Amino acid sequence: MQPAARIAAAAEILDRVLEGEAAEKALTSWARGARFAGSKDRAAIRDHVFDALRCMGSFAVLGGARTGRGLMAGMLRDAGQDPAEVFTGEGHAPAPLTEAETGQSLSDDEAAWADIPDWVRPDFEASLGLDALAVAKALRARAPVQIRVNRRLSTRGALQAELADEGITAQPMELARAALEVTEGARKLQRTAAYEDGRFEMQDAGSQAICEAVPVADGQRVLDYCAGGGGKSLALGARAELRLHAHDAAPQRMKDLPARARRAGLRVTLLDSDDLAAHGPFDLVFCDVPCSGSGAWRRAPEGKWRLTRDRLEELTAIQAQILDTAAPLVAPGGRLAYATCSLFDAENAAQIRAFLERTPGWRQDSERRLTPLDGGDGFYVSQLLRD
Ligand SMILES: C[S@@+](CC[C@H](N)C(=O)[O-])C[C@H]1O[C@@H](n2cnc3c(N)ncnc32)[C@H](O)[C@@H]1O
């Protein structure tokens, strides 16, 4: 496909996303009806769609409309290209832009704020303080690809060399001891023997860093209370001989975890809600709670535009309830790690303050907040100790 035809396809897919269809679904159904598109075409179209979702506010202004065409015209203008050169109507190129589709220019700062929904901005600025504008700018860019070396089975140096043999370039990161950032060949990662054999996992370095911040020791009984696919379980289990247990309110989310754990050389016991108390108490309960996902808006940009004030309030209520339910599962002297991939105080420090106020017998041991300025996604972890 010509570059202009890819832009036309992305515009068509974006129109469906703007009507409410999930981006992944819209991309898949488009690809099904477009057998002529090769893997490079599909990857380029996907990049256009996700770039537009990350920068939907600014691209709509630059392109003159919050439509698939407007967003694509805005994307081209943002990159310093004249959209008229692409919107020619020739072959499979999109039709020429109309007068109504003339966009306005934006400064870098204005573009960054246009890409934070208006209702979010006050909380965003209050939570991030002097970093707010820089973080808003960082959220406009694609997320880097980062992996976690499974230090049970390899080292960063050995894995770096192994990946280099497959044409994949990766650099060690400071943010986490097991993190590598992949700068070339990322699309090949999940087809390598190193991946098949569990020598690395796909995991953002911020996510790794908050797991590394939590101390673990051989023999400890550990519960990953909101385990989902098990990213945190696997990261914790790679560091010590733990008795690992995983739970999720939606148990089907853990369906791949036993196989993932086996590949990583670990064993995890899956627990239903009714079995938790019988298997407790635990030395460590890790609560990677459902949240706004604002720290990961580079990776999952649809969430930024779909989040509402009501949903944020619902999430903070669920988080409080998880803290209240998980805390009694911690043994006396044990630890509860509360983690989010949110940038908002309401889901982070304020949530912990409220828990400590209503729950005697607990104190905060430490707290860490990361933003995309640290090199990975935004994350928060508070570690609480039970008397
Ligand atoms: C942030 S995700 C977990 C991601 C996972 N820990 C990982 O690293 O791959 C949050 C998870 O919490 C689960 N969840 C939602 N409400 C819950 C509740 N009340 N109790 C336990 N888990 C819950 C969701 O089903 C979801 O899988």
UniProtKB/TrEMBL annotation:
Entry-linked InterPro entries: MeTrfase_RsmB-F_NOP2_cat, MeTrfase_RsmB-F_NOP2_dom, RCMT, RsmB-like_ferredoxin, SAM-dependent_MTases_sf
Residue span, SAM-dependent MTase RsmB/NOP-type domain: 135-387
Assigned EC number: 2.1.1.176
GO MF term (any one): RNA binding
A family per Pfam: Methyltr_RsmB-F
Any one biological process term the GO annotation gives: RNA methylation
Superkingdom classification of source: Bacteria
Enzyme class of the recorded protein, top EC level: transferase
UniProt KW keywords: Methyltransferase, RNA-binding, S-adenosyl-L-methionine, Transferase
Gene3D superfamilies in the record: Vaccinia Virus protein VP39 (3.40.50.150)
UniProt entry tagged with the keyword S-adenosyl-L-methionine: yes
Binding-site list for S-adenosyl-L-methionine: 248, 272, 288
Active-site residues, as the UniProt record annotates them: 341 (nucleophile)
Similarity-based family: Belongs to the class I-like SAM-binding methyltransferase superfamily. RsmB/NOP family.
Name of the protein: Ribosomal RNA small subunit methyltransferase B
Species of the source: Pseudooceanicola marinus
Record lineage: Bacteria, Pseudomonadati, Pseudomonadota, Alphaproteobacteria, Rhodobacterales
